[in-house]
Design brief:
By secondary structure, the chain is mainly beta. It has one domain: Thrombin, subunit H (Beta Barrel), CATH 2.40.10. Helices cover 8% and strands 53% of the residues. It has a 6-stranded antiparallel β-barrel with strand order 2-3-4-7-6-5. The longest helix has 8 residues. 16% of the residues are buried.
């Protein structure tokens, strides 16, 4: 069976939990929680959380690689909680960063 993945995954090398903020689609509530990184690729991050996560936006309260956020695209029950996939999304440049890029 051929893989449908665009990017090869590798183990996530950090052992510390990742602080995130989630806003699930269809709900206007903010959820702040800690998740564990499982695997990472150029396109996204696999995580484990203690609670089920519906599709929605995710902001990392730091960075994961060079990424500040993404979108939860799937979630399911796993042995150690809930496994989910985050697709990285490009975050627009701040006005200052835009001006610095424009000067090049």
């Amino acid at each position: 069976m051929a893989s449908t993945r665009k990017y090869p995954r590798q183990a996530y090398g950090e052992s510390e939990d990742i602080p995130v903020t989630v806003i699930q689609f269809g709900k206007l509530e903010r959820i702040d929680l800690m998740v564990k990184g499982v695997d990472i690729s150029d396109g996204g991050l696999g995580i484990i959380s203690e609670m089920p996560l519906a599709p929605g936006f995710v902001w990392f309260r730091g960075t994961v690689g060079e990424h500040k956020g993404g979108m939860i695209v799937w979630s399911r029950k796993a042995d150690a909680g809930y496994r989910a996939g985050i697709q990285f999304l490009p975050i627009p440049l701040s006005p200052r960063e835009y001006l610095e890029v424009s000067d090049d």
